[in-house]
Amino acid sequence: MNYKEQVIDVIDYPKPGIVFKDLTPLWSNSKTFGNLINDMTAPWLDKKVNVVASIESRGFIIGAPVAEKLGAGFLPLRKPNKLPRDTFSENFDLEYGSTSIHVHKDAIGSHNNVLIIDDLLATGGTAIAAYNLMKRFPYTNIVGFGFIAELNFLKGREKLINSCNNSMIDSIIQYAN
């Protein structure tokens, strides 16, 4: 299935100079969405994933159904001030600002195989922050990263490989520029 042709470029959003990849058309058609979930799940079927950690907010749309297909738990990595109990947090920079993600300190136990899912790999900052956050849990093994789309020209993959012990990275759509 050609997912790329369904993604809409929104120029100068959320600020001038950014070309936002609107992925919502991929989710609005049940057949396309089902195929996307299957394609995002396939690389991880034999990896013994028992937790899918997914990044707010567009990552949740894909992360939860991938977790269900893998028979794994779903762990939301949230924006600041969204979780009611004690959290670990990790700060990171975006192409257009900075923020942090949070997870409850008691969200998972030890000895987990964690898959990190998000919608888009750009500069790699969000994914590296998610990796660092998950490594705070004892004996956690990061199986890899799954993305719907990857902006290759921003070199996020290289940063992930260098920062995250050569973890496996899978993305469905590639953008060269």
- Mean pLDDT across residues: 94
Radius of gyration: 15 Å
Strand runs, count: 9
The portion of residues assigned to helices is: 25-40%
Give the CATH class.
Alpha Beta
SSE pattern, N- to C-terminal: EEHHEHEEEEHEHE
Alpha carbon gap, first and last residue: 21 Å
Shape: globular
Largest sheet: 5 strands, parallel
* Helix/strand/pairing category: alpha/beta
Examine the coordinates and then state which fold CATH places here, giving the name of the CATH topology: Rossmann fold
**What share of the residues does DSSP label as strand, in percent?**
35-45%
What order do the strands of the largest sheet run in, or round the barrel if closed? 4-3-7-8-9
How many helix segments?
Answer: 5
For the record, the CATH architecture stands as 3-Layer(aba) Sandwich
- Give the total of domains: 1
Poorly predicted residue ranges: none
Structure commentary:
27% of the residues lie in helices and 35% in strands. With 177 residues, it is of the alpha/beta class. The chain has a single domain, classed as Rossmann fold, CATH 3.40.50. Helix 2 packs across helix 3. The longest helix is centred in the middle third of the chain and has 13 residues. It is globular and about 40 Å long. The two termini are 21 Å apart. The model has no long low-confidence stretch (mean pLDDT 94).
